[in-house]
Amino acid sequence: MPHFKKPAEGSWTEHLKIGTEPVSYEDSISPEQYEREREAIFKRTWLNVGRVEQLPRKGSYFTKELDAARTSVVVVRGTDGEVRAFHNVCRHRGNKLVWNDFPREETSGVCRQFTCKYHAWRYDLDGKLAFVQQEGEFFDLDKAAYGLKQVRTEVWEGFVFVNLDPENTTPLREYLGEFAKGIEGYPFHKLTQVHKYRAEIGSNWKLFIDAFAEFYHAPILHSGQYMAEEARKIQKYGYEALHYDIDGPHSMVSSWGGIAPPHDRKMVKPIEAALHSGLFGPWDAPDIGLAPEDLPPAINPSRDKRWGMDSFVFFPNFMLLIWRPNWVLTYHYWPTSYNTHIFEGTCYFVPPENAFQRLQQELAAVSFKEYGLQDGNTLEATQTMLESRAVREFPLNDQEVLLRHLHQTARAYVEDHQRRGAEAGTPATS
């Protein structure tokens, strides 16, 4: 991983050669562009759908709704211990195969076979068609030809990814690039205490990634979460990250802050003082077998002593945050239309050893939820006014460099897909 600090002259934006001109957000308010993104991005890139801890034993499964790709997948651990994914559709009449009371809701469980609710066709955990009700009524039915349609699946550091494009042969690790290689070895498997949040957001999926890819807004939007003295101090001096970097479609920002306990106790809320915890996590970091100086090279890449957190954006919609007090956050942004998406936030901690540690973790989790709600509510206001098109160009500052990169990357994927479609003589949305 490159180790560099902000150039003495110039800026991160100039250093990373992103461009400095005002930007358009037409890609976030255009239904037509969203349809192009569905085809060019969400049907053709690696998507993180979960973790291996969700599949603790043979026969464990979970489903994932991928509205942007117009499908649902079922992810299962087979009898051989391998993790596989299949399109969640019965080969008989196209019914959704795995669901409970409500077909659009995700589900999970353990089973020996998958049985269709409509006509009781059954499939084993490897996707093979195992049983057909009244098989003799069919005409020369070859069960071997009607197994579940498999989806390419790979696991990186315990994170399960799928790729819906059968022609995409790029291995997951190669796609994730240098950031992922530089994170490998972090003990994600030890962080099995999980808190999850899910919200329906009235904005384009990229706008929420924008909100978490810069800290320029934090002193203003989140001022109500700070003690008065802390709020005044942060608003006066602003906020500056330690390090920005880009690798292909992916990006990262390394931040100061998150150092526990805070140096100035006058800025700590009473409940934070009582529990020794807050937004940045429990002050007493659990032992995960890694000292700060031994962290993988992509984490705190500048090796700054003020470091508190790294945020990695793995394109298109997976964000991984690694915090100094030895816990992890993930964000997912699942589009449902050009101006709506599902946001999922998941907190991962080392399992608590007592009630006090559990309360520390819960305070960190609810603090994150409050910040997330403030961001989500603001984004709905942003979306409505962008759609007015009263203003069409917007200036971005140096702290917003990763926003430029995200939108440029999304447009590039669309343009590349359209170009390849034109060369092949097929419609770009096929």
From TrEMBL:
Keyword Oxidoreductase: yes
Taxonomic superkingdom: Bacteria
Official protein name in the record: (2Fe-2S)-binding protein
Cofactor needs: Fe cation
GO molecular function (one): monooxygenase activity
PANTHER family cross-referenced by the UniProt entry: CHOLINE MONOOXYGENASE, CHLOROPLASTIC
Lineage: Bacteria, Bacillati, Actinomycetota, Actinomycetes, Kitasatosporales
Gene3D superfamilies the record matches: Naphthalene 1,2-dioxygenase Alpha Subunit, Chain A, domain 1, Rieske [2Fe-2S] iron-sulphur domain
One Pfam family matching this protein: Rieske
Rieske domain: residues covered: 46-162
InterPro entries found in the cross-reference section: Rieske_2Fe-2S (IPR017941), Rieske_2Fe-2S_sf (IPR036922), Ring_hydroxy_dOase_asu_C_dom (IPR015879), Rng_hydr_dOase-A (IPR001663)
Species, as recorded: Streptomyces flaveus
Keywords assigned by UniProt, alphabetized: 2Fe-2S, Iron, Iron-sulfur, Metal-binding, Oxidoreductase
